[in-house]
């Protein structure tokens, strides 16, 4: 009898303990901040969505996402991609962050002292992952894993050459994959969500479609060719269609894990369309400061918190998403540099608020291959007006009565022109006079012992030029005419170290041997480069492109070791010189530095 009572008492105790644990678990779940899935596409214009009036494209999952949440009618980004990504990650105008352009890489490198959205979420206890295109720093330590992301699968640069079975990077290591790149990235994002479903997570999915090269599986391409579209548009729409299906897979995963109501899902693009196609009748495309170059979709879904079908007409920008997500998730704002964005939470949650008149500035800054920084285009958008300045041409458009920017009314509204030009001048002074210094190429980190000094990142002297067919092409240093021609890279070594040095070059046919020298500080290496022979396995064309890409064909390229040299710690120039007149076909692609040792002294270490 006593034994039975003791067992009954123990059962009641266990039941009470279980009830307490269940209550604590339930309370924790209730108090747990929402998850965030942030999807960004690359070069998808406002018009590349069926919901925006494009009857030629199928995007049912994006349409459903917009209908289940809020859709922003006037949402603005930068004219090109890396600046938009810097603004997204920091909540600040991109020029403040060190990012200026998309190429060369030193112009698309975000300063290490910027606080990223991923760092804010990680500080709040979130699991953080990025699956796709980074484009905010090609070199370590400007790496996603050093900028707040626990997991990174994708690529660091602004473009990727092959979308089928791509060789990606996973947390700093090569990651061979099988399948189409958008499917691969979505698979890994879904795995990340499943792994972290019991804790808050921030999943950033920056797809690289429909950016060129225009590669897409047959069934998507054939579908749009059957609708009478040309190869370029059929490829772009097919890439968007495939991406839309993957968004559907993501949403289905959230449903199956019962996470849909606990997850904020956002979808946007990084700039206007790269090419002429349907864009809701707007003027401009990628690279322009006109409406069509900077107005993109933004859909935000959070079931039971954001009203389904809500259309937000107030102007908003990519810089607003940093403070918006901090607000919506109820996490602490980290100590950041001053933000340029403001929280959109009141608009999303339907709170009564007086939304102020805002001015959004757009700019294209050019500093190609070490040249002087110049402004290509600049503009400002208000609720009513868009003023653009392109060279000497100043245009004012009334966006309420003329959303397609067909009529320049600058002569009819001189007062508005003067006021908006003053605003542009003030903003330009603030931005252009305080640009962060250009970053050197870091070498010598243990996490990244191999660094490639690419030709576009070099500084040229003499008559040599860096060129390729297009910005994303493989660039080569051409036109070496004599020993007065040389190039150098701005590097910073974190240690005294010994490096294997190699050069990738082309000197085809009967080219004479070329004597070259590399120098760093007091160290130098001399070597003779023989003529190069074409390899049997050298690719001559991209076989999966739906539209042939413009590639520089450089036959008979070779990579040759120059030897070992010691590079001292600190910032310095790494020179490449020719010591004898090279043949007219001599070209250089890159110098590769592979660290093989370092000084035992810790005095120079900055890792």
Tell me what you see in this structure.
It is a single chain. This protein folds into 3 domains: 318 residues, Alkaline Phosphatase, subunit A, CATH 3.40.720; 72 residues, Arylsulfatase, C-terminal domain, CATH 3.30.1120.10; 164 residues, Sandwich (Jelly Rolls), CATH 2.60.120. Helices cover 23% and strands 27% of the residues. It has 11 helices and 28 strands. The strands form 6 sheets. It has a 10-stranded mixed beta sheet, sandwiched between helices.
Total count of strands: 28
Domain tally: 3
Fourth-tier CATH superfamily name of the largest domain: Alkaline Phosphatase, subunit A
**Largest sheet: number of strands, sense, barrel closure:** 10 strands, mixed
Q: Using the CA coordinates, give the radius of gyration.
A: 27 Å
* Structural class by helix and strand composition: alpha+beta
CATH class of the largest domain: Alpha Beta
Which band does the percent of strand residues land in? 25-35%
Helix percent reads 10-25%
Q: State the strand order across the main sheet.
A: 7-6-5-4-8-1-9-10-2-11
Distance between the termini: 70 Å
Provide mean pLDDT, rounded.
90
Task: Please tell me the CATH architecture of the largest domain by its name.
Answer: 3-Layer(aba) Sandwich
What is the CATH fold-level name of the largest domain? Alkaline Phosphatase, subunit A
């Amino acid at each position: 009898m006593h034994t039975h009572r003791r067992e009954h008492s123990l059962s009641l105790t266990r039941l009470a303990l279980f009830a307490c644990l269940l209550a604590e678990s339930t309370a924790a779940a209730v108090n747990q901040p929402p998850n965030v899935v942030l999807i960004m596409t690359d070069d998808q214009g406002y018009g590349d969505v069926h919901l925006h009036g494009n009857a030629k494209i199928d995007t049912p999952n994006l349409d459903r996402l917009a209908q289940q949440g809020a859709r922003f009618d006037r949402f603005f980004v930068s004219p090109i991609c890396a600046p938009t990504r810097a603004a997204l990650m920091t909540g600040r105008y991109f020029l403040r962050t060190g990012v200026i352009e998309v190429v060369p890489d030193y112009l698309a490198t975000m300063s290490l002292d910027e606080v990223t959205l991923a760092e804010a979420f990680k500080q709040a206890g979130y699991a953080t992952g990025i699956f796709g295109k980074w484009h905010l720093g090609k070199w370590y330590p400007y790496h996603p894993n050093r900028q707040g992301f626990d997991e990174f699968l994708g690529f660091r640069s602004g473009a990727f050459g092959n979308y089928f079975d791509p060789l990606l990077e996973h947390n700093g290591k090569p990651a061979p994959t099988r399948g189409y790149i958008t499917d691969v990235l979505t698979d890994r994002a879904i795995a990340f969500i499943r792994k972290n479903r019991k804790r808050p997570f921030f999943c950033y999915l920056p797809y690289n479609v429909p950016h060129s090269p225009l590669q897409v599986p047959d069934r998507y391409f054939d579908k749009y060719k059957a609708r009478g579209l040309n190869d370029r548009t059929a490829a772009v729409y097919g890439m968007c269609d495939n991406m839309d299906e993957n968004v559907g897979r993501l949403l289905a995963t959230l449903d199956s894990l019962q996470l849909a109501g606990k997850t904020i899902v956002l979808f946007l693009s990084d700039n206007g369309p790269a090419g002429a196609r349907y864009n809701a009748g707007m003027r401009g495309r990628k690279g322009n400061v006109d409406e069509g170059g900077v107005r993109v979709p933004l859909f935000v879904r959070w079931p039971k918190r954001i009203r389904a079908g809500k259309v937000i007409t107030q102007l908003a920008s990519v810089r607003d998403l940093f403070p918006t997500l901090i607000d919506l998730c109820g996490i602490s704002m980290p100590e950041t540099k001053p933000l340029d964005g403001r929280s959109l939470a009141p608009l999303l949650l339907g709170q009564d608020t007086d939304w102020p008149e805002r001015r959004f500035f757009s700019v294209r800054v050019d500093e190609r291959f070490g040249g002087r920084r110049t402004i290509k285009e600049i503009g400002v958008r208000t609720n009513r007006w868009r003023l653009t300045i392109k060279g000497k041409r100043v245009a004012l458009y009334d966006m309420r009565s003329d959303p397609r920017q067909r009529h320049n009314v600058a002569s009819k509204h001189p007062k508005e022109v003067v006021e908006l030009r003053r605003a542009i001048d003030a903003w330009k002074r603030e931005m252009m006079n305080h640009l962060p210094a250009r970053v050197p190429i870091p070498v010598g980190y243990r996490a990244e012992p191999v660094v490639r000094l690419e030709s576009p990142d070099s500084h040229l002297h003499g008559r040599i030029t860096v060129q390729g067919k297009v910005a994303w092409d493989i660039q080569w240093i051409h036109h070496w005419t004599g020993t007065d021609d040389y190039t150098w890279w701005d590097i910073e070594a974190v240690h005294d170290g010994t490096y294997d040095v190699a050069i990738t070059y082309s000197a085809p046919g009967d080219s004479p041997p070329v004597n070259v020298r590399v120098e760093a500080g007091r160290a130098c290496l001399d070597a003779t480069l023989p003529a190069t022979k074409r390899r049997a396995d050298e690719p001559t064309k991209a076989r999966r492109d739906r539209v042939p890409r413009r590639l520089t064909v450089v036959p008979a390229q070779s990579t040759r070791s120059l030897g070992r040299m010691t590079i001292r710690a600190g910032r310095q120039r790494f020179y490449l010189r020719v010591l004898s007149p090279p043949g007219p076909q001599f070209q250089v692609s890159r110098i590769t530095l592979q660290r093989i040792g370092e000084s035992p002294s810790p005095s120079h270490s900055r890792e």
